[in-house]
Amino acid sequence: MEKMKDRCPWCLGSDIYTRYHDTEWGRPERDSQKLFEFLVLEGAQAGLSWLTILKRREGYRAAFDGMDPERMARYGERDIERLVRDERIIRNRRKIVSAVENARAYLAMPRPLSDWFWDRVDGEPVVNRFKTMQEIPASTPLSEGISRDLKKQGFTFVGPTIVYAFLQATGFVNDHLTTCFLHPRSRRKAGTQG
C-alpha cells in the first residue's frame, strides 16, 4: 500500500483541488498564451474561491474562443453582452471587459509575456520555505512591482494579491509548504525529480 503523500492543506477535501495542486500549481509555465489564460482566470477569481474558477475553466475556454488573445482582442459590445449572459463563466461585466482589455494589452506588449515575467525572477522560480499556510503572504514586493508594471502596460484586474496568486499558480514562485511532497526540499529527500 502506497504511503499517503503530504500535500499543502489548501488542496485537501476536493478532488479537483488535489489534482490541480499535484499536476499544475507551482509548476513553471513558459507558454505565453497559457500565462495569459491564467492572468484572465486570476482576475475572474477576485473575491471568489479558486475552486469556483477551476470548475468553470472549460467554460471560460469555450466562451472566450479558447482563450485566444487575438480573437478576444477583437470583441465588441455584442460579444460583451453575449458573455454577460453565459452561465459557464463568472458573469461580471467588469471582469469580462477586463479580459478583453487584457487581450489587447497582451498583444501590444513589446516582447512575449513569458519572457517578460521570467525576467522578473531572473529566469528561475523563487523557492520559498514556508512551513505553515499562515506564513504565506497575500502579496510581496515582487507582486507589487509586477502589478504596477502590468497596469502601465494596460492590464486590468492585476492588483498585487491577484498577481501573487498568479505567480504561485504558474511557478514563478514556489509556495508549496516544506512538508509538501512537491516542495523541492521534499523531492530531494525522496530522491525524485520533475
Features:
single chain, globular, Endonuclease III, domain 1, mainly alpha, two-stranded parallel ribbon, 53% helix, 2 strands, 194 residues, 10 helices
Task: Reconstruct the topology from this structure.
Blueprint: H1 15-23, H2 32-45, H3 50-63, H4 69-72, H5 77-84, H6 93-108, H7 113-120, E1 126-127, H8 141-152, H9 160-169, E2 173-174, H10 184-190
Parallel strand pairs: 1-2
Helix pairs in contact: 2-3, 2-6, 2-9, 8-9
CATH topology: Endonuclease III, domain 1
- Unreliable stretches, pLDDT < 50, 5 or more residues? none
Query: Sheet bearing the most strands, described?
Result: 2 strands, parallel
Quickly give the structural class. Answer: mainly alpha
What is the name of the CATH superfamily? Answer: Hypothetical protein, domain 2
Helix content, binned percent: 40-55%
Oligomeric organization of the protein chains: single chain
Provide the CATH architecture. Answer: Orthogonal Bundle
**Can you tell me the overall shape?**
globular
Q: What would CATH call the class?
A: Mainly Alpha
Order of helices and strands: HHHHHHHEHHEH
Q: What is the tally of beta strands? A: 2
**Strand numbers in spatial order across the main sheet:** 1-2
Radius of gyration: 17 Å
The mean pLDDT is: 94
Total domain modules: 1
